[in-house]
Amino acid sequence: MSDTNLKALKATSIIGHSKDSQYANRMAGFTLIELMISLVLGLLISAAVIQIYVINTRTVTIQQSASEVQDSSIFALQALEEHIRLANLGNPITSISSTSNHGGVVLTPTNLGTANTTLTTLLTNDSGSAGFTSVSNMANVASDQLTIQYKNITPSPLYDCQGAEIAAGSSDWVVERYFVRLATGTTASAGVQNLALACAAGRVSENGTVIDAFSGNGEVVVPAVDQFKVLLGSQIGINQLAYLAPSTYLKLTDKPSITTIKIGTIIRSTTPLISSTDQESFTVLGTSQNLKADTARRKFYRRSYESTVLLRNARLMTVTATSPKLAATP
Predict the structure, then answer these.
(1) Does some domain include residue 70?
(2) Confidence class for position 93, pLDDT limits 50, 70, 90
(3) Domain limits for position 14
(4) What CA–CA distance (Å, rounded) separates 124 from 147?
(5) Does pLDDT of 324 surpass 60?
(6) Are residues 133 and 178 in the same domain?
(7) Are residues 8 and 139 in the same domain?
(8) Is 66 in the same domain as 22?
């Protein structure tokens, strides 16, 4: 083979090897170190995205739960306060006690009329009342019950707590009973239960004959509630106002007139929280209460609310007389 042919063969071999090397370089993948770095970076980015999603979801549920509780406190409790202010409307007797005929706060059957024989368990009661039982999600503290009555003497129709119309000038007395019960479709259990604040409305005649019973399950006022407490405000002096539980008030020998009603509630959301922690201790009307222990329960947003309602139809006027000062005798 001539030198010329040998040189040409070597040149062709070098060119072919160069093309193969370029092709091999183009087809080369990641090294093991590069792959591990990519996986770590991908996991870090995924973890950050998941964390942001969890935080956003938790924030949304907290905001939604707080909104539900706020709606219940603003709309439901304000409607309850408006009905309580109607207590004793249409009654010429402005002094409310356990013996007042058709008194605005129903504590005894006498308050409903001379011929009334309603069970006392359907009247205003608290956890210390004899024979009265109620449900609550607070440990060792039962809920209370508030029963009021009024008559529509206005020129316009009114509506009771169940939505029934009360004709203007109706001669019947409207009775409304506010209490805590199990939510519809819920069975009783030992732990935290699904409770609701309900109202059952009825009618009684002038002498106390029950025309429409108020002993049923009623309509839900607050869809999710853990506690409902009631205190009766009585004026025991010119500048003194005492708040007593209904059972304590009934034990007094000299019962002062009731002028205000103080209510306390613990309201919860209907949307469970994602977080594993929530508030479990509350103060309602000056009493500290703890939520029932229940490891299987879902966590909810809970807040306590208190309100003092002045009974506008049971105001008292206290007159204080002072002796005139005589001028000194010269």
Answers:
(1) yes
(2) confident
(3) 1-29
(4) 5
(5) no
(6) yes
(7) no
(8) no
CA distances (Å), 32 to each of 27, 44, 267, in order?
16, 18, 58
Question: Same domain for 82 and 164?
Answer: yes
User: Cα torsion at 162, 165, 166, 168 (round to 10°)?
Assistant: 150
The domain total for the chain is 2
Looking at the structure, do residues 21 and 115 belong to the same domain, yes or no?
A: no
Kindly report, residue by residue over 177-214, the tens digit of the pLDDT.
Answer: 999 999 988 888 778 888 999 999 999 999 999 999 99
Tell me the average pLDDT across 159-170.
94
23 vs 13: CA distance, rounded Å: 16
Pair (263, 139) in one structural domain: yes
Mention every residue, 6+ apart, whose C-beta is less than 8 A from residue 201.
160, 161, 162, 164, 174, 175, 176, 177, 212, 214, 218
Cβ atoms of 269 and 39 within 8 Å: the answer is: no
Q: Give the mean pLDDT of the chain.
A: 83
End-to-end CA distance of the chain: give it in Å, rounded. Answer: 164
Evaluate whether residue 45 is within a structural domain: no
Do 238 and 169 reside in the same domain of the chain?
Answer: yes
β-bridge pairing 240-244 and 225-237: antiparallel
Are 5 and 70 in a shared domain? no
